[in-house]
Amino acid sequence: MYESFYGLKEKPFSLTPDPKFLYLSKQHQGALDHMLYGIKQKEGFMTIVGDVGTGKTTLCRCLLDRLDSSVQVALILNPMLSDIDLLRTCLYDLRIEPSLYLAHTPVDVIPGDTGQMAQNSTAGSHLKSIEEKSLIDCLSKKELIDVLNAFLLKQHEENKSTVLIIDEAQNLSFDVMEQVRILSNLETEKEKLLQIIFVGQLELTEKLNRPELKQLNQRISIRYQIPPLTREETYNYVNHRVMIAGTVSRIRFNSSALKTIYNYSKGYPRLINLVSDRALLSAFNAQTDSIESGHVKQGIKSLSGVDAMERSWKELIKQNSSLAFSILFFIAGLIFFTSGQSNSGGANLNKEIASPILQPNNSENLAEIKKNITPTKSNANVQTTENSRPSSPIGQSYKEDYRIQVYAFSKQKKAEKNAGILKAEGFKTYWKKINSSGQIWYVVYVGPFGTITEAKPSLKRLKTSGREPLLLSLSNSG
Fold it and tell me: What is this structure's pTM?
């Protein structure tokens, strides 16, 4: 969509594993060097592990481009295979013709699309390919291994190498892993005939440490782990892919945009590609060449539905602060309750215990008050002021009513603004200033209501709108 506008030959942040776009960071270069070394030295078993989205599959594609014609490779992208299916896939990928290596070729193999006995004297290349494929499907496990062994010996005699790469290897079953270990037994007195590379997620290391795979684990001679990109490498990665996609491109990611990309992706190439592509789309909609932090944030929202950075901050607050706040406010509530009970004249002290309300547009709810105290004549430590709800006359009888706490702010302007928003939405709203132990809070309420039944429709509407309201019962004059 935006390629022509920015002068790009193709999309710079596609998720396909195109080796042309591979940015060889220090870690990726190290992984590639280890694989090339293991193949050249015929080390046998190697493992390359990394977290999801670190570029492992793209690295495998790059490895294939680096190998010359003397190396034949079987690349297994689907690890959900049985042991015999793995053997057959290896023979297909290596283009092995079983009839060249079997002492006696079965005579009852019928090509799948002819329904007739194969005739070697008249079959063309296509028919021959069908016959070979049908033959591979008819061979037993022993025959498949014998054919593979004969092929590997021929490769060795011609001074050629054979490599088996299994991507997403953490998903291999124990039976298939044992079959791969048996394949590693195909060797001469001096070197391995088949080089095997396991490429997988971090779980692969844990799986190989299982007691059932002890023999296989001991045979791995080269291990390498790919970490995410650093901040500087992330910046270089973005610029590298833009340059590859179009050298005359007008795109420019400014420093704040690159910083936001790194903070979101944590250096994982797949996430970098996702958010950078969405940022380009956002900038294209604005018809600008300069990609700024705002475009990246808009891209993040389009990917997750909410601002992922703010969501992470909210989760951090919940995980680390909720217990401390709960204990603190429980103690404060107990003190206030005891104080209220000791007052003479039967004065009532309301308890309004409110949970922290985490709204996307309110960053101050970290310290949201947990106790809102309705003042009495004898309670000098807690003072309240309301903007649109006058106090009832002194001496008038008390009755039970209800209100809904929606927000709590440390600044009056925010309380007024959000109260206005609620009023615009049709709610009966007011805010109250509370001085609790020297700390001023501006609490926004919906109500009051005479009964719970009257309060429930507003409570339901507030919850549906994404807010986290709290229904409070209080004794208030008048």
Answer: 0.60
